[in-house]
Amino acid sequence: MVGPALYRSDYTPESSKVTRKAKNPAALSRDANRRTLPAMSQLLDSCLDALGLGSVLQREALGGGCISDVARLTLSGGGSLILKQNPQAPADMFPAEAAGLAALRDAGTLRVPRVVHAQADYILLEDLGRGAPATDYWDRLGEGLAQLHGESRSQFGFGCNNYCGATPQDNSPLLDGHEFFARFRLLALAREARQRELIGEGLYARLQSIARRLPELVPKQRAVLLHGDLWSGNVHCCSDGLPALIDPASYWGWAEADLAMTLLFGGFAPSFYEAYEGNSGLDPGWQERAPLYNLYHLLNHLLLFGGSYLAQLEQDAARFG
After folding, report:
1. What's the pLDDT tens digit per position in 83-120?
2. In this structure, what CATH number is given to the domain that contains residue 79?
3. For residues 299 and 297, what is the distance between their CA atoms, to the nearest angstrom?
4. Does 31 qualify as catalytic in the annotation?
5. What pTM was estimated for this model as a whole?
6. In this structure, are 121 and 210 located in the same domain?
7. Which candidate in 121, 139, 229, 247 is catalytic?
């Protein structure tokens, strides 16, 4: 969930770090019966004690969260953990994130923080530290993502529904990837945007047409495990300089869709794409289709943050509709 949508190839480490927008207060449901922050703090202390981790000695706020508050907790039992919390989060948001992290971690191709505990209001994660990128940082990320995408299956979807940012993401299983992307990605968000009058009837009709024509526009691909929201802010540089995947919106889908998201907000280093292509059977035409896949993410940002994404959405939809 980031700033202006730009396709760029002039990568520098600084240019990849896009400033996130402020948290959208309308993005999550507001339930007066959800816990207050003091009550959450008491429950967190009880959880840490039950896990034998002691109490919180220091709480350091970390930047980067547009949906949840993020902090590093230094513990009396030794070590530290990362806490993401939001008292207004839907009850299944953090458990669904935990399921995505577990799936990526189980794949074993890239570092992923271990989930210590997850419940309705928060998730506790392994603290991977923070360092400067190693010289082969982007190469390792490209190779690892190619390996992640190297295992495929016939069925699209995921074991549970989850969220891309604060937007619910339907992961009901389907065998047809075109139908999956049309129903649960493009049309689901286009319908919501139209109902909220964020897009006009003309753009809505164009998105519907694109959804119908997906078999003509996108080559048939098997389902692979995706990060699902793969921009630079969701790749973490660990204390040893190696990359880790964080904040996923995982499901089994098209590999090209994961790669497309990397281009949406500035792109990754060229060595990332070279390493990925060198370790995969990537179709060379994927970049031409990238704006099509990213219609989903532009719709999502439109729903979460408003009209600043509309012009890019209209421009990219016109290319395919």
Report:
1. 999 999 999 999 999 999 999 999 999 999 999 999 99
2. 3.30.200.20
3. 5
4. no
5. 0.89
6. no
7. 229
